[in-house]
Amino acid sequence: MQPTYYRILGFDETMTGFAGKYNLLLYRDDDYDDRFLSSLSHISPSLVTQIESRVWAVDKSVKIRLTGVPALFIPGNAGSAKQVRSMAKEAARYYYETLPHEQGSRAAGSKPIDFFTVDLNEEFSAFHGQLLQDQAHYVNEVIAYILSLYADNTSDPRLPRPTSVLIVGHSMGGIVARSIFTTDNYIQGSVQSILTVATPHMLPPIALDYKITAAYDKIEDFWTHGFHTPHSPLANVSLVSIMGGNLDVTVNSDSGNIHHLVPQSHGFSVFTSSIPHAWVGTDHLSILWCNQVVIAIGKALVDLVDTRRPDQVKPLGERMKIFRRRFLTGTEEHASLASASTQDEQRLQLSDFEHTFLETDTTWAFPPATYNAQSTMPHLFVMALSPSPDAAGTIALLTDHTLGQNSRLHVFLCKDAASSSSPFSQKPETLSCRRDKLAFAPIPASTESSTMPLFTGEYYTAREFRFAQKQVSELIGNQFLVVLDRGRQYAEHGFLLAEFGKEAAHREVIETTTIGLLRDGLKRSKFPERPSLVSTINLPNMDSSLLAYNLKVNRTGCKVQKFAPMMRQSSWAMHEDKYSVNIAGKESGVDINFHGDLPYYDKIQLGGNNGVELRFWMDPTCPESLSLTLEVDKYGSLGKVVIRYRMVVLVFTFLVVLLAIRAQIKGWSRTGYFVPFGEILSLLIRSTFWKFSVLLAAISMLQHLIPRTAVDIGTEAISSAQGSSLEGLSKLTATGGRRWWRHSDQLFGDALLGDNDAFFWFLAPVFFQVAVGIVVFVWILMNTIVKTVALLTKCSAGGDSKNASSTIHRVITVVVMSGLVLFVVPYQFAFTATLLWLIWINTRALNHARQQSRSAFLQTTMAWNHFHFSMSILVMFFFLLPFCIPALTVWIRNFAIGWFKSFDSDHRVDVLPFLIFVEGLSHVRSADIASWKRSSRVTVLILDTMIGYLIVFGVRYSWQIYFLTRLWVSWLLVLKFVESGPARLLQRRILQPGTKQD
């Protein structure tokens, strides 16, 4: 792979306001594009300057001649523009090398793809909502510029000029791709197809910024209503979301589900473990360079192209067929896929072949025990099918042969060529055959040396099986199943297994519960009762994606097997299949986990199914059944809980701090003594926190008693993707629009941890206890820091000057800080500086309190009360710091690259109450908190309101914590002002206007 990136300087400040911050690059692959494309061949070398390795800058005066189809890659949070290279390489390889061989010639309208990519300077777009809006605005400007490059293209005047661009977005780049429709500079129809990888569509990965939550709400509202009519803005837009699964610990793959907002006729969500010829999970970054995955993505993008249309892509229905074929076929049985293309009829004269007629009520294996597999003579094996349209049962076939004209084996569905003029014969003379009805699907091969799909040890083998299963009733009109063996000269050694039987005989539905699985697990000493090629276990109640499981499989007594037992796990909330190969005898067992059940949202079910399906393949010629033991994987489940609820600990730690400060204020109002933060934590741990944990558990259990809504996206919607673009939507909306509602219909569906399974009532109290431990640790850390600094600065006890210069100094400090926030630095920077300032204030307060030890009791108490209160505020502000760090990181990043234009949302005076409050604490006498004592009940009531809000909505809307704290601090400032000298003077003047003041 030899990638080269050309930075297009012609897209400058005259076309975008972000020219100094972002850049547009054109990708070219030296292996293909330099040989076949002439878009850059006319450029003089003097107009191209190398700016870094593999990156060249193209002069503004150059007019690039593009002859392909435009596509744009949008990187995600801290992502690089160069991440486009793997999928672009595979798209070029497929177009120039594979496509001509697969189809004989390239399809009409096919052209290579010109991959553009935007360099967003590796911005932290997950941290700040304004970044998403800016990037979306920039991407629309990029799209307009890219389309202008094709406007004067005269390479083929018979073809229309492109009016749309293919979009691929990684991580938050997928959110940017969806948000471009909501900006004021969006060009109608400029985007028709979007492919996102590892994108958190449902929830932002970090909900610390209200702007990012608002951006998500705006995007979701637009997309929820964007498909309603044939003239809606998204009526012709397709969206496919690809997720990596459990290996992606950066983005919770549950949030990649788009089935709650996109009709099945317009898109779907799928996991890389479900993609044919990939069958592998990926982490957040490897999803862009995992070869099996990017090959599928590259092929899908090339297949979408149709240059005969102005939008450069096939109609919506055909696009969805392509996406399903590339990402779902063979592993996805939830969708109704189009059958394989019809083949010409082929006649087989039995007298021309050696042939054998077989019984159809048994399992048949190729090569038979008495068959000479070394023969070079063709041989036909003929099995009669039931002629009755009411025939029950299925036919299943599994082989390791590739099947087809160049394979040793070929499978046909045939009928007696003379049956129309004579009665049905069990032994016909001539067969009329087709091979298009069985639609063999690829599945990974499973051998005794297989370690994972397509791998033996560390070596990639790419070895696959072919599998087909049909109801006999679906094959009416076909009288025979025929297997043609062309002979050993084709040099293929392998097997083919065919089994006729009733599927129900090899399917077991187990109605176990989550508690039952946790307590007893699931054991089957003999499954199925009689070995079968395909057997299935349905677990309809295993529907919580928070739990992980481990399955141990054993099969003893089978010394020789045609293949090793294998399993496919399927869940019904998203298109998620996982294959496990060579499962028998694994000491570590087989991991079983799934996604799609996200709190705060309606539960989505595809095709009306619940739970998990486990499908097993085994060699039926061995008489031994499987032995199964299924248990809950406690450590794996803990990992899933942590990834999903990573924000809970942050919210609950602040909850602990509020409870502690509340207890301090209540105790102080009664006794006049402000208990130290550490002591109050110790008291609460022994008395109150366990009661609060019980309260959280009770709220969780009460929440689960309310029925949860399940949205059933049935097979009608799925199959509608084969028809008109809005057919599936009309079928769904005819039964009610609730299928596209965003949040759970359950009362308090947004409360606490969301509406999970009732089994998880204990999560909230457990998280709360963890939060208590974290707060204790932070208190010890802050206390140690303050005492250490105080020890080093004993002489700096701090006193208060009563002269006017002190007041002037305070006013100047606040004014300067406010000015910096309004015009230079974000308010998050000011808050962080305030926190550091507060540490210094506490060291001075500690030294001052120690110096007062020999003074009067009242002065000593006031000094220590002030110190203990300031320490509590320090702990509170420390836990507010995470709400400032993301935006501060973005500002530092922009500053580092020389971008000094800041966001208006970051230059607000919201931080002013914190500045004034902390500035007041810095003056010992003026910070006497006794003035707040008379209003302590109201102060505690405000804290109670904050605590109640955090319990109900804190996890879902965690960014509100900062603003709620600001309100409480503002209330304390109001109290301080009321008790101040200027306020008293103003009060006397208002109440006694005639009184002369001295």
From TrEMBL:
MF GO annotations: phosphatidylinositol deacylase activity
Domain GPI inositol-deacylase transmembrane: from-to ranges: 649-977
Source taxon at top rank: Eukaryota
Bilayer topology annotation: Multi-pass membrane protein
Subcellular localization: Endoplasmic reticulum membrane
SUPFAM superfamilies xrefs: alpha/beta-Hydrolases
Transmembrane segments: 643-661, 673-699, 758-782, 811-840, 867-892, 938-955
Keyword Glycosyltransferase: no
Gene3D superfamilies reported in the protein's UniProt record: alpha/beta hydrolase (3.40.50.1820)
Entry's EC annotation: 3.1.-.-
UniProt record similarity statement: Belongs to the GPI inositol-deacylase family.
Function: Involved in inositol deacylation of GPI-anchored proteins which plays important roles in the quality control and ER-associated degradation of GPI-anchored proteins.
The protein's name in its UniProt record: GPI inositol-deacylase
Source taxonomy: Eukaryota, Fungi, Fungi incertae sedis, Mucoromycota, Mortierellomycotina
Gene name in the database record: BST1_1
